[in-house]
UniProtKB/TrEMBL annotation:
Membrane among keywords: yes
Residues passing through the membrane, by range: 7-29, 41-64
Protein name, UniProt field: Holin
Domain of life: Bacteria
The keyword Transmembrane helix belongs to this UniProt entry's keyword annotation: yes
Organism: Hymenobacter latericoloratus
Annotated keywords: Membrane, Transmembrane, Transmembrane helix
Length: 86
């Protein structure tokens, strides 16, 4: 896979996973609010935070792949050896 392909996979997957983790945090908070047992809402909250942080990691990897793509694969628009010459 090229850096571009990895970027196009990791960034959207990260955003979707962050959204899922956010929804799960709300779900865990709702469990606490509705009086479920402590172990139940703590376990749900822990799982939600794991999903949320995994999403941040995936998105961060997507950003890193985007930078690598821009540095290594994207054709250079300007030849730095000809700076100043028009």
């Amino acid at each position: 896979m090229t850096h571009r392909d990895k970027w196009l996979v990791f960034a959207p997957a990260g955003l979707v996973t962050v959204g899922l983790g956010t929804c799960l945090v709300q779900w865990a908070a709702d469990k606490k609010r509705n009086g479920h047992s402590t172990s139940e809402w703590v376990a749900a909250g822990t799982a939600a935070l794991v999903v949320f942080n995994a999403g941040l990691s995936l998105f961060g990897r997507g950003v890193a792949e985007s930078v690598l793509y821009q540095l290594k694969e994207k054709p250079r628009e300007m030849d730095y050896g000809n700076v100043g010459r028009l």
